[in-house]
Amino acid sequence: MVMVRDYQYSRILDVHRWSEHREANLFVDEVYNTFLDHQGRENTRIKKKHLKVILLDLYVAWLNDPDLNIAVHMSPAAYSNGTVFSNGKSRYNELNIKVSTIDIVHRLDEAGLIGRKDGWQDSGGKGFLTRIWPTPKLTKLFEDAAFGFFDIGYAENRETIILRDEDKVDAPYDDNRMVRDMRQLLQDYNKLLEKTFIDIQSLDVPRIELPEKKRRRQSNKQVFVNITHHDKFVRRIFNNKTFDDGGRFYGGWWQRIDGDYRKDIRMNDVPTVEIDYSSLHVILAYTEAELDYWQNTGKDPYDLPVRGVNNPEHSRDITKLFFLLSLNASNEQALYKAFRSELNYKAYPYTFPDAVLAKLLDTIKQGHPDIAHLICSGAGLKLMNIDSRICEYVIADFVKTDKPILTVHDSFIVPFGEEDRLLQRMKKAFKKVTKKKGIKAKFNDNLTKKQLYAHAAKDRNWFLDMISFVNKGSPSKGYIKRLTRHREHYGNF
């Protein structure tokens, strides 16, 4: 039976995939000398470099999920006009990967080492890049290779500070002390993440299918997140060609999964606790207006009515989404469009004509007159910049003490036992960045150290059972295998 590949299930070629492992270099040499027809007096060094990136990225994809395809640009224009990479060496293209990629793909295909699906358009005219994947001929070479899972990483100086223009295209910039400090922190942080085992015990196969609300733009397609060592690299992305807009930390598979899965994350085989700031962007909007929201009111900022919605929980969720989008939107029509795109209509089966949304917008402005001027003003990127500086402070504190921490913008995930420290650092960071004291934080429903020891005095058996759970949990066979493999390479925690 011939298996049909799902060409939609893919990711873009990672042009930073690299290794200096001796056996990886010998592997590339073998493939180049044995299977690729040499083209006259070609520059062997450049061709091998491009071959190495493609082979290693195919290897990583195959290791993590054999069904995963690699999407690759096959138009020379994509490599010369700045659409993908600049024509000269770019800080965003450390290995200087260029049009030779196309030649290498063709030659790997001719050698029978990869399968290929040329780029295409769907019935709606949407274009898709060419997909490639390893054939059994190449996977046999992978299986016999003398390098392994942890020998493949990234180019040493892969850029971590990304500046984008108004069209979301990577933009050039000059380094200064601030940028160098931000980059150094991220380099240290990524080194910490690299050696930290981050996984989910219950997953025998380390792959999660996203719920529909996470894949609403492809509602008829399955979308997966691979829980893998090779998806932990974190960057900061700034916007509008200024370091005053955006700056959030992006990267890591944990940012793309739901809270129900995030609560099951283990770091170095220890359960975790997640804490987030309550209503952070609304609170930050108030700090921009020189006001301390929680000190002046105890009201839930999202507790506002929505016309036609009688379910209080639904009303709050809808208001929250609309409110947060209103801080990002530049005008009302952009807000309405974004809201209709983002709303999960299966969970909230209501209709929202412009009149209803206009009423909700008025309700929010009347409920929050002090920040009404920030609504539909595009203030969101400024607020993101503030929350990114808060996040930077917290991450730096944990990196300094070599303690692992994960971030999902306004929330943080730490190993069991570190939650009190995290809470104090979150409070300190908020005060330092905003000059305000009033914050509220929410814990997820995982067991905390404080809860554990509070129960110890009342119920010794419960305490011992929880200690056992914290230490052991209920690991799947796949998890144990991944944990063992990590320990064999990095040592015990």
Please explain how this structure is put together.
With 493 residues, this protein is α+β, with helices and mostly antiparallel strands. The chain has a domain at 1-159. It has helices at residues 22-35, 44-64, 76-80, 100-110, 136-144, 177-195, 259-262, 280-288, 293-296, 312-328, 332-342, 354-367, 380-400, 419-434, 449-456, 460-471, 477-490, and strands at residues 10-12, 17-18, 69-72, 114-117, 120-121, 127-128, 130-134, 153-154, 161-163, 198-200, 207-209, 224-226, 235-238, 246-250, 265-267, 270-277, 406-407, 411-415, 441-443. The strands form six sheets. Strands 10, 15, 16, 17, 18 and 19 form a six-stranded antiparallel β-sheet that branches. Strands 1-3-7-4 form a four-stranded mixed β-sheet. A three-stranded mixed β-sheet has the order 9-13-14. The chain is globular, with a radius of gyration of 25 Å. The model is unreliable at 214-218 (pLDDT under 50).
Task: Summarize the topology.
Layout: E1 10-12, E2 17-18, H1 22-35, H2 44-64, E3 69-72, H3 76-80, H4 100-110, E4 114-117, E5 120-121, E6 127-128, E7 130-134, H5 136-144, E8 153-154, E9 161-163, H6 177-195, E10 198-200, E11 207-209, E12 224-226, E13 235-238, E14 246-250, H7 259-262, E15 265-267, E16 270-277, H8 280-288, H9 293-296, H10 312-328, H11 332-342, H12 354-367, H13 380-400, E17 406-407, E18 411-415, H14 419-434, E19 441-443, H15 449-456, H16 460-471, H17 477-490
Parallel strand pairs: 1-3, 9-13
Antiparallel strand pairs: 2-8, 3-7, 4-7, 5-6, 10-15, 11-12, 13-14, 15-16, 16-18, 16-19, 17-18
Helix pairs in contact: 1-2, 2-4, 6-13, 8-13, 10-11, 13-14, 15-16
